[in-house]
Design a protein that fits this description.
The complex is a heterodimer. Chain A is α+β, with helices and mostly antiparallel strands. Chain A is built from 17 helices and 20 strands. Chain A folds into three domains: 181 residues, Ubiquitin-like (UB roll) (Roll); 119 residues, Uridine Diphospho-n-acetylenolpyruvylglucosamine Reductase, domain 3 (2-Layer Sandwich); 108 residues, Enolase-like, domain 1 (2-Layer Sandwich). In chain A, the strands form five sheets. In chain A, strands 2-1-5-3-4 form a five-stranded mixed sheet. In chain A, strands 10-11-16-12-13 form a five-stranded antiparallel sheet. The longest helix of chain A has 23 residues. The radius of gyration of chain A is 23 Å and the shape is globular. Chain A starts with a strand and ends with a helix. In chain A, 58% of the residues are buried. In chain B, α7 links the parallel β10 and β11. Chain B has 20 helices and 29 strands. The radius of gyration of chain B is 27 Å and the shape is globular. Chain B is of the alpha+beta class. In chain B, α10 runs parallel beside α11 and α19 packs parallel to α20. Chain B folds into three domains: 150 residues, Aldehyde oxidase/xanthine dehydrogenase, molybdopterin binding domain (Aldehyde Oxidoreductase, domain 4); 193 residues, Aldehyde oxidase/xanthine dehydrogenase, molybdopterin binding domain (Aldehyde Oxidoreductase, domain 4, 2-Layer Sandwich), CATH 3.30.365; 222 residues, Aldehyde Oxidoreductase, domain 4 (2-Layer Sandwich), CATH 3.30.365.10. The longest helix of chain B is centred in the last third of the chain and has 28 residues. Classes of the chains: A alpha+beta, B alpha+beta. At the A-B interface, α2, α3, α4, α5 and α8 of A face α1, α18 and α20 of B. Chain A: Keywords: FAD, Flavoprotein, Iron, Metal-binding, Oxidoreductase. Chain A: It holds the Pfam family Fer2_2. Chain A: InterPro entries: 2Fe-2S-bd (IPR002888), 2Fe-2S-bd_dom_sf (IPR036884), 2Fe-2S_ferredoxin-like_sf (IPR036010), 2Fe-2S_ferredoxin-type (IPR001041), 2Fe2S_fd_BS (IPR006058), Beta-grasp_dom_sf (IPR012675), CO_DH_flav_C (IPR005107), CO_DH_flav_C_dom_sf (IPR036683). Chain A: This is Xanthine dehydrogenase, N-terminal subunit.
Amino acid sequence: MENVTITVNGAPRRAGAAVNTTVLEWLRAEGLTGCKEGCAEGECGACAVLVARDDGRGNTRLDSVNACLLTLAALDGGEIVTSEGLGSPQHLHPAQREMAVRGGSQCGYCTPGFVVSMAAEYYRADREAGQHGAPNGFDIHALSGNLCRCTGYRPIQDAAHALGTPEDGDPLASRRSQPAPAVATTHVKAADGEFHRPATLRETLDLLAAHPHAKVLAGGTDWNVDVNLRHARADVVVAVDHLPELRRFEVTDDAVLLGAGLSLSELERRLGGRVPLLAAWFPQFASRLIRNSATLGGNLGTASPIGDSPPVLLALDASVLLVGPDGGREVALSEYFTGYRQTVRQAGELIAAVRVSRPLAPLTAFHKIAKRRFDDISSVAVGYALDVQGGVVTHARIGLGGVAATPLRAHEAEAALEGQPWTEATVRRAARILGRTGTPLSDHRASAAYRAAMLEQSLLKFWFDSSEVTA
Amino acid sequence: MSLHERPAHAPVGEAIPHESAALHVTGHALYTDDLGVRLAGLLHAWPVQSPHAHARVTGLDTMPALDVQGVVRVLSAADVPGVNDAGVKGDEPLFPSEVMYHGHPVCWVLGDSEDAARLGAAAVKVTFEPLQSLITVREAIDARAFQGAQSTLRRGDVAVGFAQAAHTFEGEFDIGGQEHFYLETHAALAHVDEAGQVFIHSSTQHPSETQEITAHVLGLPSSAVTVQCLRMGGGFGGKEMQPHGYAAIAALGATLTGRPVRLRLNRTLDLTLTGKRHPFHAVWKAGFDAEGRFTALQVTLTSDGGWSLDLSEPVMARALCHLDNAYFIPHVEAHGRIAHTNKTSQTAFRGFGGPQGMLVVEDILGRVAPLLGLDAHELRARNFYRPGEATPYGQSVRHAERLHDLWAQLLERSDFHTRRAEVAAFNAAHPHRKRGLSVTPVKFGIAFNFTAYNQAGALVHVYKDGSVLINHGGTEMGQGLHTKMIQVAATALGVPLSSVRLAPTRTDKVPNTSATAASSGADLNGGAVKDACDQIRARLSEVAAGTLGVHPDDVRFEAGHVFPIGHPERGMDFAALVHDAYHRRTPLWAAGFYRTPGLHWDRVAMQGEPFKYFSYGASVSEVEVDGFTGAYRVRRADLLHDVGDSLSPLIDLGQVEGGFLQGAGWLTLEELRWDESSGEGRGRLQTRSASTYKLPSFSELPDVFNVALLERATETGVVYGSKAVGEPPLMLAISVREALREACAAFGPGGRSTLLGSPATPEAVYWALDLARTGAEVAADD
């Protein structure tokens, strides 16, 4: 049974897709074993591949993504490039050559993934000398989702910083000026279930009505972790991230509307710093490889208490636009979470977008407490949005993650700030209240005592950081 | 020429990339699990795991698995034709009747697909009678649950030492373990050749032992089993003992079904099944004279060995032999014992107990320096070994002066004293951020403590066209051993690097090999490769001497050219000479052998000369700590390390840097957490995935990273004057932890001892600095 077509390294391949098969499994079964499994949950990047996507201007962008988190059927009609497609031992790609001669590979197992992530940045159309403090503009955060256990990263960094610009005739550079493949409407019936990528929202909602337990798939960065590590299986999967209703992006004087099906990278690019709190937050959300697939809809749909988007969106007073068989509705995010991984969203409803009202509070920060600075899950996350007028706090919103069964607004600490002078005394009083908010647990990430201490310390840090800036 | 001397224009010492670099970067390099897709009829294996930390298996019903579509067979104890054990101590049943840790495999299911095997494993019905379990080292100590030999390293009389002490301190210290997290998880692929030969591809650092254990499980002689290792995607010690059982399962499945069997652990299985670095617990008492020199050290080390003995005894021996690190301690009494807990069987991991031993003494010095009124770097330097002094186990510290020299060079290169002042100024100006700057030394003994392992073999072929194929007993796990061996062979035969090809490690080419471990891969296999090449070259010299009309001793081999000394113009091509030699019926291949001379070790008395030599190094690290959260970054690290005369500088630099970052991971970030509660999940590893067990990423790369190899460092008696490099640099990372301690202390008034957990995660750092801020006095000076 051959039911999807995917272009790999320039040549189309037919695949008999099972509903729960990932691109990584398929590539390896095809003999393209340069794609490696290191963790099967999007943490190590050893399976990174380039995906050809529309860049919004009719041309193609090459995004690096984790093949282990990409459902094969979801790639129907798509186009990818693997390490084997970048170059060969006789004709190395510039990223491969720099990695090889500088000692960027030791055991070599993570190497193809690094090369792919590096190539994505190499082909970034708006890369310019001097960006990100690098002579060649290479953003080293492009490699934050790739782990190496051998080298210590220095030679890999040197390789990244040694890259020039693509030469004339570079096939992938030329590929960028052609249109990306159109996203196919897909219906796959396989032995293990059915995969649908319906053409319209109407069809999607009908499918969800007919299959209330269908798995709704956007980027797949959460669901496929369950598939790989916990052997979760879905009978019916419905892909939604291509629907125009979920891909809206609007900035008006009153609000910013963020489509739930847009990848976080896409949102980051399109916002371009217009919401400073989100601009500060994006780089701290997982890794570039994940942000190239993950969506706001997914992060709010799974409703994990340690999801990173709720604390910032709560601070921004965001609301969620839901769409269902009976039309749409808008729910304040502070009303959205009802219990551990539970929300007001009904079966058959989709998250269409997130609305952030404007004007934005001017004083904002996102604090993520984690063991590792890049690509880690929060022990505690705090989002702040304050307005201070004439030395008095006129508006305070504090969103919390990791301290209860759901993301929380810190209402009491907000109340302790609002109407009070923006002084250290006020902050210390509010910080003590914030430190008693929620019911943090002790687990493998952090102790309850540390989580509570971090809430309190976080507000103090916010105060001292902002007064350093304003001083 | 003696072993350490280099000819002119030698390929050894050239900074060349890894021999497989072009294959690595293009994805063409093959690893064990890349091979199965190329075989027809492949079966996949999946384990049925215990949900208890300790339990008796009271019933096993495998029939339901056979009802799952695609399941072919379930392997259990009754299928074992030989010995049902996968260890070397007889305490690791392959199919246990008593499960000893959470996740312990009871049996294995074979399926047409991994999916089928996995579903089959879920269908197997096992009944258990739960038994009492011990999870932490402290629980085991309280229960007096130890395994293996207990050993004591003693010199002098600590009572005398303490009587001479002006200051005495006591303390306790818990050191966390570490997961290897090689990017390639364990994998084996077995099939049965013609005539019943079992052929196994295994991701193993110890192919000969994988072969021996598979043979005894199958009830076959070793000659009927061949193990090959193309390369590993990282090993770090984790594939020294651990691969054997998986190879045996795959081989057993292949012999019983007649089909090739693939066994590959996914990351969760690898984390929950395989051994890790030993956590240690230390109780100590240390005496110092008025100038801060050690007078005595009394220590009891308890390692957490996990459920089976594995390599815990030699790991403890190395820990005891590295308690001194770089310091002369006149009176020493150190006890070592191994806790028996219901966890994975802890095993070899880069440094092999050395890091834990060293960390104990470095922690002591870091803690007590403020109480002695000394800067920690001054306290350390004051205690260095001086030429002529010996270790507590009686080995003279050769080249002790090299450590002093290296230390002085590093302080100079890193601008240490100026930066100390800058750090102090920064700290005075910043109430919420503090910096710390520290320097620590490394002295690490090279050779296997187990003397018999210090031997190696090689097989070198020269073909009629002058091309060279080498085979040796060492395995490639990314450390660049094969690259170095190609350089050694090219140097010894006087041919260009391009003439030498290296064939994968196989037990039917070079038998009875030692594990590629203990940093000794290049020393041992390099000796053996050179021996084989020297034999061939001696025969070729005879042939050339006849042709050139000179004495054989006066024939030079250089870059593929053979000529009378002083007359390169009268020479000939290596290939022409080889052609000539073949026609004169000269054997063009040779088996090489090497044994490390001069080693002896009494493991009961803990005395002797267990090491061929010591590797030295030192590092300076500067960190900045956020006082609100305990989060930190390494601003700069300067490393200076002694690799003798490097065989391959690009490779060695990579080993030094990679070791440092892996050490920094162990000491600051990587945290293994087991469920220690009395609930249902007791004994379950909670950090069982890459999302919960965090290893260093790009964010841990120091902002400034200066790494250098000590120059003019020829080591006599070792192949081409080089020294081992695999393990010692890991311990350079101790300076990061000590810098964090200094930064934490800077939040307080100073002059007090700062305790820091290990790993020094942001949380641990936060509690340390919070204590410094709020001012509790911790260690008491009596």
